[in-house]
Design a protein that fits this description.
Radius of gyration: 14 Å
Helix content: under 10%
Distance between the termini: 40 Å
Oligomer: single chain
Strand content: over 45%
Largest sheet: 7 strands, mixed
Length: 127
């Protein structure tokens, strides 16, 4: 049973940076597509970024492209989301998600393609 634990959220000011982490336990996550999603109060959960298990493929939501960077350290079983130039509209609970796949370059932006989710970490950006 794979478990995902997010960390690194907090309260920052607009323009600041923050780095989220998602530690995977239970199994090696080397063959997992990993993604980040977020949900603001009163809004639907939305896709942020995803990374293939090989690290060769990434995809980002247009709203974060150029500001956020997704990465992984397979040796540490950890996924990261580096968030720069944060804006108040980035305020949300951030969730990491995982799904195992055979294909090394597969990435998913749809939430229903993932079968394992973390509990989330809150990011609040003040103006």
């Amino acid at each position: 049973q794979v478990q995902l634990i997010e960390a690194g959220g907090g309260l920052v000011q607009a323009g600041d940076s923050l780095k989220l982490s998602c530690t995977v336990s239970g199994r090696t996550f080397s063959y997992y597509v990993m993604g980040w999603f977020r949900q603001a109060p009163g809004k639907e959960r939305e896709f942020v970024a995803a990374l293939s298990w090989s690290g060769a493929s990434t995809t980002y939501a247009d709203s974060v492209k150029g500001r956020f960077t997704i990465s992984r350290d397979n040796a540490k079983n950890t996924l990261y989301l580096q968030m720069d130039s944060l804006k108040p509209e980035d305020t949300a609970a951030y969730y990491c998600a995982a799904v195992e796949t055979y294909y090394s370059s597969t990435v998913y932006s749809r939430a229903d393609r993932y079968d394992t989710w973390g509990q989330g970490t809150q990011v609040t950006v003040s103006s």
